[in-house]
Predict the 3D structure of the following.
Amino acid sequence: MPTSKTHSSHKPLKRYGQNFLTDKNIIEKIVNEINSKEGEEILEIGPGKGALTRELLKSGAKIYAVEIDKYLVDELKKELEQANLINADVLKLNLVDLFTPNRIRVVGNIPYNITSPILFKLIENRTIVKDAVLMMQDEVAKRLVAKPNTKDYGILSIALNYFGSVEYCFRISKNVFFPKPKVFSALVHIYFNGQISPLDALFVKVVKAAFNHRRKTLKNSLTNSIFKDCDFKKIKFDLSRRAESLSVAEFTELTNEINNCLQRI
């Protein structure tokens, strides 16, 4: 059932992937994981009907809530005057303009269809994003903490563990949302180290190219990618391996080798 009588007439919109959180115990567990402090700046993605927003405001944190659904924004503005409500698509929002020089925290219930783009947006903005506590599809959450040589291991788990670390907090039942989704959700806590290296962009390109043909060897994948002009014979790395067998440290090593190779072209 909806969390507030004020908003009860508004049906969740399928095109926005809306599933409103309604269970007080789960909300409390999420709030405890976020552990917000007075004065902190928090960007909430998709506040929906404000169930989490209300609790976060109690901590004295400054809340910026980005919601694509204008009806929900208008309704929340009537009740949550302390929150900074932004009617926008978070993927189009310029976080640097909004928050620099402060480091912010990000929270939210992420629609399945835009989970990857949101995670890559946070990676791109890692100098201003301290951490992120996000609800997402359980299947995706498991990918973020996957280890090498498993089917879930891939671009997202490598990228997030290169730029920080990820903690799988707990699984969330379908029954705590309205409408009830078809899949289980999970809460993850992502910590960003905020560091910048000249090879960061190249690292992401190398990982993406390596996983372009997941079942093939690194040599096959890389020679059919943007790195096809490299002389792979001069790379000091075992390219007969598959991408899913490489650790984050090994991908860093491979990136350095490819960078050296690119300098020679």
